[in-house]
């Protein structure tokens, strides 16, 4: 949007991420951030919710702090499509001009954000991990890792509206439910026809064979190169099974083919926020630890007392990871 009058642009909007009419957790994390930013700017939190049958989900969004949830329902919106979602959202934003627009950096969000930004001619800051606000200028300061995670870039968008960014899942906490929430749900009319959508979903095949989502796990047992061999690494599944967790890994292990990409933790993998993260034989490279900053408790096992991972761990065990793993399994048995 070529913007001349910034005063027309108001409020913090969140685009809800859904898979088959179920709201993705990142949406709640974004509402928490939107609430904080909106409070600082004296504006409202508005959420865009698209799907086929999503009114009960809309109530949950209100219960977590949305002032207004705009609901767009149609069988054509049951599944995410670039064309359908971009059209509905950008048509709406012709009349309802957001000051700030937050999108989850999920698979769908990473597809949607640049497409919307192309239509709105506003630019998008992708994959942010910190959001602050300059209340004097009314500008969001978007922070994101850059240059292989070695620096943090701070980016502002002073000349265009909406100020738009995508935010990685699991970086921010989900806000608590509000007992006396005040928000409202608005069913929105919109114009979308089958011929507006050039793609058709034939099937949905989850990428991961085992089907667990590491981003939702409470306990992650993660291995790195220190595990030494695939055979050793596979023993981590025994521990994970025994304590109700799932297995994750560093990037080199994915590159070796010991585990699939959906289970890679870190900058080019998943950001995770488990209650417990066990790191076996992981050095603690910035590209890895940037993915675990949301973990409540990190326990690191490494035979190098100076390993960087100990700087990020709540508890450290200096020792051979297989010895420690076997001890743990023996105790559990
Ligand atoms: P290493 O760094 O080799 O560490 C192995 C550790 O095991 C060492 O600390 C060693 O002391 C310890 N060890 C060895 N033997 C034992 C033993 N017997 N018992 C106990 N400890 C032992 N990495 C990721 O993980 N995720 C990412 O998303 C990611 N993205 C990247 C993106 C870019 C652009 C780049 C450049 C790199 C990225 N990396 C990523 C790679 C990252 O920089 C590191 O190379 C990687 O995380 C290191 O993996 P590691 O800790 O398994 O191995």
- Fraction of residues in H or I helices: 25-40%
Q: Give the overall silhouette.
A: globular
Strand share of the residues?
25-35%
The largest pleated sheet is described as: 7 strands, parallel
* Neighbour order of strands in the largest sheet: 7-11-6-1-4-5-12
Strand-pairing-aware structural class: alpha/beta
pLDDT averaged residue by residue: 93
- Number of contiguous helices: 8
* Assembly category: single chain
Radius of gyration of CA atoms, rounded to a whole number: 22 Å
Order of helices and strands: EEEHEHEHEHEEEEEEEHEHEHEEH
Q: Count the E strands.
A: 17
Give the low-confidence spans. none
- How far the N terminus sits from the C terminus, by CA atoms, comes to 62 Å
Bound molecules: flavin-adenine dinucleotide
Give an overview of the whole structure.
- With 333 residues, the chain is α/β, with parallel strands linked by helices.
- 27% of the residues lie in helices and 26% in strands.
- The chain is built from eight helices and 17 strands.
- The strands form four sheets. Strands 7-11-6-1-4-5-12 form a seven-stranded parallel sheet, with helices on both faces. Strands 14-13-15-16-17 form a five-stranded parallel sheet. It has a three-stranded antiparallel sheet with strand order 8-9-10.
- Strand 8 (130-134) and strand 9 form a beta hairpin.
- Helix 3 (82-95) packs across helix 4 and helix 5 (230-243) packs parallel to helix 8.
- The termini are far apart.
- The model has no long low-confidence stretch (mean pLDDT 93).
- The structure holds flavin-adenine dinucleotide.
- Flavin-adenine dinucleotide binds at residues 148, 224-226, 228, 250-252, 264-269, 281-283, 285, 287-288, 301-304, 307, 320-321.
């Amino acid at each position: 949007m070529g913007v001349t009058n910034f005063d027309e642009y108001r409020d913090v909007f969140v685009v809800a991420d859904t898979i088959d009419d179920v709201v993705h957790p990142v949406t709640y994390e974004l509402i928490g951030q939107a609430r904080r930013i909106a409070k600082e700017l004296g504006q409202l939190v508005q959420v865009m919710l698209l799907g086929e049958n999503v009114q009960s989900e809309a109530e949950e969004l209100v219960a977590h702090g949305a002032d207004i949830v705009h609901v767009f329902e149609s069988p054509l919106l049951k599944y995410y499509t670039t064309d359908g979602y971009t059209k509905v959202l950008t048509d709406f934003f012709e009349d309802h001009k957001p000051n700030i627009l937050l999108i989850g950096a999920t698979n769908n969000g990473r597809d949607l954000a640049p497409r919307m930004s192309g239509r709105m001619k506003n630019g998008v800051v992708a994959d942010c991990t910190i959001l602050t606000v300059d209340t004097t200028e009314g500008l969001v300061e978007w922070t994101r890792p850059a240059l292989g995670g070695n620096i943090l870039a701070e980016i502002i968008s002073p000349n265009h509206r909406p100020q738009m960014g995508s935010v990685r899942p699991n970086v921010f906490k989900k806000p608590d439910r509000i007992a006396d929430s005040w928000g409202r749900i608005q069913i929105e009319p919109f114009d979308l026809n089958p011929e507006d959508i050039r793609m058709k979903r034939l099937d949905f095949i989850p990428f991961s064979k085992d089907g667990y989502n590491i981003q939702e796990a409470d306990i992650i047992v993660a291995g790195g190169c220190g595990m030494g061999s695939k055979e050793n690494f596979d023993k981590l599944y025994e521990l994970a099974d025994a304590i109700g967790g799932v297995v994750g890994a560093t990037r080199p292990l994915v590159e070796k083919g010991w585990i699939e990409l959906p289970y890679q933790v870190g900058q080019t993998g998943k950001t995770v926020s488990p209650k417990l993260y066990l790191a076996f034989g992981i050095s603690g490279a910035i590209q890895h630890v940037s993915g675990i900053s949301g973990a409540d408790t990190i326990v690191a096992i490494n035979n190098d007392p100076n390993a960087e991972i100990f700087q990020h761990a709540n508890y450290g065990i200096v020792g051979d990871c297989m010895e420690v793993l076997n001890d743990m399994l023996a105790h559990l048995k």
